Amino acid sequence: MATHATQNEGGMTPMKRLDIVVDTLHLNRLLTKLRQAGATGYTVLPNASGFGDRGDQRADDPSGVSTNACVMLAVPMESAPQVIEAARLALRKYGGVCIVSDCQWLDH
């Protein structure tokens, strides 16, 4: 049963999805900021690799210095502005990237 106030009739609720890549050194600080802003859940994908403005980020780096994690979360439209702003401030301080998109939460 849906817990979101804006549930659609098709059993799906419109939400905002955030995909955030941050270095693992700052992961817990980011998660704390997101929870404080109203995020009620997230998924962390450790050992994310890729390439960007900081160069090659390898998931298999034995030192762990260049290890990233990907945080995926969906937030209700009502709390999205606060969570997005918390992500913006954290990324400004710690670095990383965030993609925000519209999504549908499948109620089950």
Describe the structure.
With 108 residues, this protein is an alpha+beta fold. Helix 1 packs antiparallel against helix 2.
How are the SSEs placed, and which strands pair?
Layout: E1 12-23, H1 27-36, E2 43-48, E3 50-52, E4 55-57, E5 68-76, H2 80-94, E6 97-106
Antiparallel strand pairs: 1-5, 1-6, 2-5, 3-4
Helix pairs in contact: 1-2
In short:
It is elongated, with a radius of gyration of 15 Å. It has helices at residues 27-36, 80-94, and strands spanning 12-23, 43-48, 50-52, 55-57, 68-76, 97-106.
Give the rounded overall mean pLDDT: 89
Largest sheet: 4 strands, antiparallel
End-to-end separation in angstroms reads: 6 Å
Structural class: alpha+beta
**Helical element count?**
2
Strand order of the largest sheet: 2-5-1-6
Number of strands: 6
Instruction: List low-confidence stretches.
Output: none
The coarse silhouette is elongated
